[in-house]
Design a protein that fits this description.
Layout (H helix, E strand, L loop, with lengths): L1 H9 L1 H14 L4 H10 L17 H12 L3 H12 L9 H8 L6 E13 L3 E11 L7 E10 L2 E2 L1 E2 L2 E2 L1 E7 L4 E2 L14 E11 L3 E2 L16 H28 L15 H35 L4 H28 L10 H12 L7 H11 L10
Parallel strand pairs: 1-3
Antiparallel strand pairs: 1-2, 2-9, 3-4, 3-7, 5-6, 7-10, 8-9
Helix pairs in contact: 1-4, 4-5, 4-7, 5-7, 7-8, 7-9, 7-10, 8-9, 9-10, 9-11
Length: about 375
């Protein structure tokens, strides 16, 4: 899989050059999407049964991180479309083959249960609106989280409604074209709407995380996998901020100063702090990625404590990435605010990424509750 990481690095010069183009288009251009597809980035986690690469979570994270060192938006689309590949193990083989087996398949979607899937005997009738449809412009299939309804009422499993995911062709979905945000502008993460879309039951699953492909990758914590991708984007952006500030510091002479920015003690201290902050958090991140992957391979499933520490490491690295970028952005001073400076885009991108629910404050709260021995539902880990 090292060839895939090298391929990701091979895109860096083009992505740096074209980053303003992605921002203006507010989506990944079609030619770049084709290059990513041909490189295998969208099939990284798809089972081999359906022509996927069935890579591992660590390689996946390293590829995303390498892309994000050049442009966070492009990396985000690769991350979403790549991570969605694991969902091929959540539907029947017949459904998965229809969705994923084609050589041009690009699948994205949203896990949030914002839709209604009405059980109509041999199919589901799906309606709803979802946010954050990253990569939807380049996709040909989308998945969406739904609550199961029967006879007009939610189907209950104990005290909670039954929920799961459905898959539908993008051509049957209404893309809203409303992705107008401060950061991650080039991801095309628009809302999408389904209005009475007919979904065969082979393309839906309402048994919580039933795994049809019984191999280690598909027993890796699913929310941990998504969260690790979000943070991989953020770590790549943080590394880019240090690179850009270092280049700027060697030539910029701040107002009312005689020496270049690099000669100022504050610059030296903050660059050192940023490097230590990012590298130490990244080390914890990959330590827990390796441990979780090893346990999944040897024991079939990572322990609750390991899954907890994985989410701790991922969320900590997300926060460390924000801190790193903030330090570099502030050191850049007035130069950082101009659109000609990559620092302003990196700043906006990492702050938008930090709002993703998988790296938000509630994750730390859940981890803390478990560490304190408080009883509760920790299945989301």
């Amino acid at each position: 899989m090292t060839d895939l990481i090298a391929a990701a690095r091979g895109f860096q010069d083009e992505l740096k050059r074209r980053a303003p183009e992605l921002e203006a288009a507010r989506r990944l251009p079609a030619d770049l999407a084709k290059k990513f597809r041909d490189a295998g980035f969208f099939r990284l986690l798809v089972p081999k049964d359906y022509g996927g690469l069935e890579s591992d979570p660590i390689t996946f994270a390293q590829i995303v991180e390498a892309l994000a060192e050049a442009d966070a938006s492009a990396a985000w689309v690769a991350m979403i479309c790549g991570s969605t590949g694991v969902t091929a193990s959540w539907v029947s083989p017949a459904g998965a083959r229809e969705i994923f087996a084609g050589p041009d398949a690009v699948v994205c979607g949203v896990f949030a249960r914002r839709g209604k899937a009405h059980d109509e005997v041999d199919h589901y009738r799906v309606e709803g609106r979802w946010q954050w449809g990253s990569g939807s412009d380049i996709s040909n299939w989308m998945t969406a989280g739904c609550v199961l309804y029967r006879d007009g009422k939610p189907v209950m499993e104990g005290e909670v409604p039954a929920n799961g995911a459905i898959f539908a062709p993008t051509r049957e979905i209404e893309l809203q074209g409303n992705w107008d945000t401060s950061g991650l502008c080039g991801t095309g993460s628009q809302d999408f709407v389904m209005k009475n879309v007919r979904v065969p039951k082979a393309r839906a699953e309402f048994s919580a995380f039933k795994v049809y492909t019984d191999r280690p990758l598909y027993h890796f914590p699913p929310f941990g996998l998504l969260a690790c991708g979000v943070t991989a984007v953020m770590m790549g952006a943080a590394r880019a901020s240090i690179r850009e500030l270092t280049a700027l510091a060697s030539v910029k002479i701040p107002e009312a100063h005689r020496r270049v920015l690099a000669q100022r003690t504050q610059t030296q201290e903050h660059v050192a702090e940023a490097e230590a902050t990012l590298r130490s958090a990244r080390a914890f991140y990959y330590e827990m990625m390796h441990k979780t992957w090893d346990e999944t391979n040897t024991k079939g499933r990572a322990s609750t404590e390991t899954r907890r520490d994985l989410r701790l490491a991922i969320t900590h690295a997300a926060r460390a990435s924000v801190r790193t970028v903030d330090l570099m952005y502030n050191l850049g001073g007035g130069t950082s605010v101009y659109k000609t400076s990559p620092l302003q885009r990196i700043f906006r991108d990492v702050h938008v990424a930090s709002q993703h629910m998988q790296v938000a404050t509630p994750t730390m709260e859940t981890v803390g509750r478990h560490m304190l021995g408080i009883e509760g539902d920790y299945s989301q880990l």
